[in-house]
Design brief:
The chain has helices at residues 3-10, 57-60, 63-77, 98-103, 107-116, 190-197, and strands at residues 13-23, 35-45, 85-92, 126-130, 137-143, 154-158, 168-176. By secondary structure, it is α+β, with helices and mostly antiparallel strands.
Length: 198
Amino acid sequence: MNADDAVRSAYQVRRWVGLVEETYHEGGAAGNEPLVKAVAGVVVKNPFAGRYEADLSPLIDPSPALGTALGKRAVALLGGREVQSYGKAGIAGLAGEQEHVVACVTTVFGNAFREAVGGAAAWISSTTKTASAGAGIDIPLAFKDEVYVRSHYDAIHVAVPDVPRPDELFICVAVASGGRLHHRVGGMTAEEAHAAKA
């Protein structure tokens, strides 16, 4: 069973979402290669919408499939570029709770996501909230092998007009091909981080 099929067997999927940004400069000289950021997301029915449930394992247990499927989709959106930074996020519709979307992006999700993007060592920055359809969310980005690499602290915004409906969850991940354009505020570099772990 492929990753998408595994997701559909565990969650009721309404839509997959993809977004790509290619930026050549942020006020400085334009480079030859853009900074590419990509978002992959999925909209699923929230089985706990409208009621409190103490046991959220029906959302947690199959979430590695979400991490794998979203990670593979995000990597594909980078168009062959290396993943240097990543993050995760989610929005619960108003008939649900923030905890419902958090349940979908816990450690088991994160481990599968790391593997899908080619391996990583750093914890995954995250944001979650409850909101109405059309609400946006900033997905935080950080260097995938060492969270203290300052040049890669970044984010990408995603919003979909009819997502999430009150009884839905919007789960998304983001990846980027590098750090911020024109970063120049010091701190540990990605190269130093890799050398320290060698």
